[in-house]
Design goal:
The structure is a single chain. With 291 residues, the protein is of the alpha+beta class. Helix content is 24%, strand content 34%. The protein is built from nine helices and 17 strands. Strands 6, 7, 8, 9, 10, 11, 14, 15, 16 and 17 form a ten-stranded antiparallel sheet that branches. It has a five-stranded mixed sheet with strand order 2-1-3-4-5. It is globular and about 60 Å long.
Length: 291
């Protein structure tokens, strides 16, 4: 009988990752399940090699857990079938392909073999939802800080408004597209490269993006030329999906390669995980990896 190997991050969702993963005990009642905390897996090559090929892998968690799995297993040979059980806070990946939180695990191999990469801070990693510099990264950073202090529930919309009015520092930016052309922007609120349509727990930032685009194109969106009072209005329009109506403040590009350079250090988010103190990132379609 095949065994389902459940990979979870115990520290996710304010240290409730293991409890969320064990919801599979009921959902998959009758199946043989074995649980693994990803923090305890030191060598994925050996991990997959020690598991029979007809066993199954289930990644249980949210977008952050999935990002960690994708990057920790990059270039690994994974002969087993790979599934995902969405149990995170945002679940933007699951939402993008029409799945709901705590649904039955679903196969994901076709969704994780053609992912783009971001290079920032001297490190390359893959992403499957979005990578950005600006307000959303600042919000993620502040949310992580609040959770580390014991706050269990964070209202991201309220936090974003507070950041616009207080902590977020508007910067100028230079964007270089895949053809080497430079684009100048002032007072930037957000500069995001998307593989999927959603970010921030259900905000449809890039409604026309197709994560399974055969040409592997990405969508780049930059929100700019915004004094603080107008930034609040445009931010509200992003939440309700009306931001493209602000044609003077929202610029959209399609392509496979984008470099963003900010005039001052600003947080960067990669599938909801934050990097501090960087001034630029390079996001690009990367050759297909058959895991």
């Amino acid at each position: 009988m095949s065994i389902y190997h459940i990979l979870y991050n115990r520290l996710s969702r304010s240290n409730t990752g293991e409890l969320e993963a064990h919801m599979l005990d009921e959902i998959m009642s009758g199946e043989s399940l074995k649980y693994w905390n990803v923090a305890d897996i030191e060598d994925y090559h050996k991990f997959f090699a020690d598991i029979p090929d007809d066993d199954k892998i289930i990644v249980a968690g949210g977008d952050g857990t999935m990002n960690r799995f994708i990057n920790d297993t990059d270039y690994c040979h994974v002969p087993q079938d790979v599934y995902f059980f969405p149990a995170g806070s945002g679940n933007d990946f699951a939402r993008d392909i029409g799945k709901k939180k705590h649904c039955e695990p679903f196969p994901i191999r076709k969704h994780i073999s053609n992912l783009p990469a971001i290079f920032t801070g001297g490190r390359e990693q893959r992403f499957f939802n979005s990578a950005s510099i600006g307000l959303d990264a600042q919000v993620c950073l502040e949310a992580d800080r609040l959770k580390s202090m014991g706050k269990k529930s964070v209202n991201y919309a309220v936090l974003a408004v507070k950041c616009i009015l207080t902590k977020y520092k508007f910067c100028d930016a230079v964007v270089i597209d895949g053809e080497g052309k430079e684009h100048q922007f002032r007072d930037v609120l957000l500069a995001i490269t998307t593989k999927g349509r959603y970010f921030g727990g259900g905000v449809k930032i890039s409604p026309n993006q197709d994560r399974n685009d055969p040409d592997e194109n990405l969508t780049f969106i930059i929100v700019h030329n915004l004094p603080a009072f107008k930034a609040l209005i445009v931010f509200a329009s992003i939440v309700i999906g009306k931001h493209f109506s602000f044609k003077k403040n929202v610029t959209v590009m399609k392509g496979k390669d984008f470099t963003v350079k900010f005039s001052a250090p600003t947080p960067i988010q990669i599938d909801g995980e934050t990097v501090e103190g960087e001034k630029e990132y390079h996001a690009y379609a990367k050759h297909t990896v058959e895991i």
